[in-house]
Amino acid sequence: MGRYIARRIASAIVTLWLLATIVFVIVSVLPGESIGRKILGAFAPESEVAAFNQRLGTDRPLLNQYFSSIKSVFTLDFGTSYQSGADVNDIIFPALFRSGKLALLALIIVIPLAISAGIFAARRKDKFADRAIVTTGLALSSIPDFIPAAVLLSVFAIGVPTSVLGVSSSLWTFGKPFANPPPGTSVIGHFPYLILPALAMVIAYFGYIARMTRAGVSNGLNADYARTATMKGLPPGKVMRGHILRNALAPTITVISVSIGYLFGGIIGVEKVFNYAGLGSTMLTAVGAQDIPVLQGAVLLVGIIYMLSTLAADLLIAYLNPRVRLESKR
Amino acid sequence: MSEIEVPVEASMEDQSPPVATPEVKVASERKQSRRENWRLIRRRPSFIIGNLIVWFWVVCAILGERITPHHPLDFRTTPHLSPNGDFPFGTDQTGRDVLSRVMAGAFDVLKIAPLAALIGVLLGVVLGMLMGYLGGWLDNFLSRIVEAFLALPVVLIALLAVTTLGKSSGVVTGVVAVLFIPVVARTVRAAVLGERELDYVTSAKLRGENGAFVMFREVLPNVSGPIIVELTVRVGYAVFTVATLAFLGAGPPPPSPDWGAQVSDGFRVLSAGIWWTTFFPAAAIASLVIAVNLIADSVQSVLDA
């Protein structure tokens, strides 16, 4: 197991380095013109642009910039914001914390829901309930996430159908249109603020997790070990929990770990609709202001979270399934 | 679709390459089975419905203002009229007809998404074939890079790239295409790995055929199933990505009637009860994405069977 962990961590570090390289190429190599020229505009005098670049350190040789860029990923030091001059970390870590709250609520809802739906569908494979779950789930996941977010916002926070249906909207409006809870809100008090954006995230990821669980469980139901367990007289619940799920959940765990990485940064649309001050909104603000260090820091932070969550998932899978950790010895 | 790329090894349904039949099919037989597959695909209701919707939007995109009831940029009407007889989808904040803008807006997404998907798939196929067929250190190295690309949601890298490179439709097409290469390459690589050890490849090599011939004339036709599936799936992802980028402000500039941009303009007035400027363009995006996915799904279920 120790050897497996070491190998897995080494590969995560290599991937992180490559990721930082990709981001560096996009930000510093491809654009052609200097960042100072880009921000100050085509009519700024050359001397001003040069001074600007010197202040940002973007006048240094590319290789030099590359090394400090790679270093920043591993030391978590992303420099200072172009726009406000503040430490990038003071901007992106509070935003990460807020996105984390939202992601956590979404995960608490979507994991049990999608796994039970997947098991349910696998047991009724190719029947109506199965088709309904898989098709609806995938259709909902395939729509860009800002659309379910806008629908949830207008129905459950604003109560738009009120005028159309002529019924009082207080019956179903349970969420707030703006997701940022005021400072000092209690843990329970967060709920009406976070529930609607969290539900939009649930809609975005339910289909994937349910489908993966369904595929794994339906393979497990047909496997010899499941038949053996049933034949030796175990009740169906025990066969499912003790034998099938232990084996079949590996791909589900992988998908969940990927979603965690994506939930922190990928749901920019949902954060925009609910005006939520998370990592996604931070990135959008940085895009508007051409604030490259903030944008770069936020993007790399999302990459780091992805690495950590997939690493944790692989270790969990190895812990659950001895075949995985023993295979690496060969 | 929300952009999770399920790792190939994690997806149990995808484990067997769909066309990895052990015996080599002769060309005529291959042609016949292709025709048979096509017949099966055409018969599926989801394929028919998906096509009806997609072609409706294609017609709207091509004919544009020639068939819209009003001019999509004409702002001489009262702003924020709710849906009525003259303006079935209402009017937007500057008094433009929402129905006309939704119809004309199909152009902005359809000129980018299919082309981006096609370029991404073509380059991804070449890369995946090289990785799967040649193997060795090249495969190892490229696989690492592919993995690094997958660590970030496509929308996120696209947003970063569009910010530094500019947001013209050429750049957006190129960026989306490039970001699709890694995923496609991984799928194709996995399919090629299943073929590489089969007898027909060995015999082609023994005949003295060169690598390019074996790869593109022998192996490629046998992995065409997963490639076609990948292409249809990618078109769906491309629509998703382009619409999301436009919503986030990295789309065509105003007053272009882009769907994502319309939703972005509209959702701020939702709280005033003005739902039609958001709802109709949003429904248009949803209908196109779902239609493409219906087609992809029917293609997949026939070719993967």
Structure description:
The complex is a heterodimer of chains A (330) and B (305). Chain A has 15 helices and no strands. With 330 residues, chain A is mostly helical. In chain A, helix 5 (88-123) crosses helix 9 and helix 11 packs antiparallel against helix 14 (292-320). The model of chain A has no long low-confidence stretch (mean pLDDT 85). Chain B is mainly α. Chain B has helices spanning 27-43, 45-63, 98-110, 113-134, 136-150, 154-165, 169-196, 199-206, 211-222, 224-247, 259-266, 276-303. The interface between A and B is large, with 65 and 52 residues.
Put the structure in a nutshell.
The complex is a heterodimer of chains A (330) and B (305). Chain A has 330 residues and is mostly helical.
- Strand content of the residues of chain B, in percent? under 5%
Number of helices of chain A: 15
- Overall mean pLDDT of chain B stands at 85
Output the structural class of chain A: mainly alpha
First-residue to last-residue Cα separation of chain A: 12 Å
Assembly state (oligomeric): heterodimer
Number of strands of chain A: 0
- What's the rounded overall pLDDT mean of chain A? 85
Based on CA atoms alone, the radius of gyration of chain A comes out at 24 Å
% residues in beta strands of chain A: under 5%
The poorly predicted ranges of chain A are: none
What distance lies between the first and last C-alpha atoms of chain B, to the nearest angstrom?
A: 23 Å
Describe the global form of chain B: elongated
What percent of residues of chain A adopt helix (DSSP H or I)?
over 70%
Main beta sheet of chain A: none
Query: Which value, in Å, is the CA radius of gyration of chain B?
Result: 22 Å
Q: What is the H/E order of chain A?
A: HHHHHHHHHHHHHHH
**Helical run tally of chain B:** 12
For the largest interface in this structure, which chains are involved and how many residues does each contribute?
Answer: A-B, 65 and 52 residues
Give the tally of β-strands of chain B: 0
Note the main sheet of chain B.
none
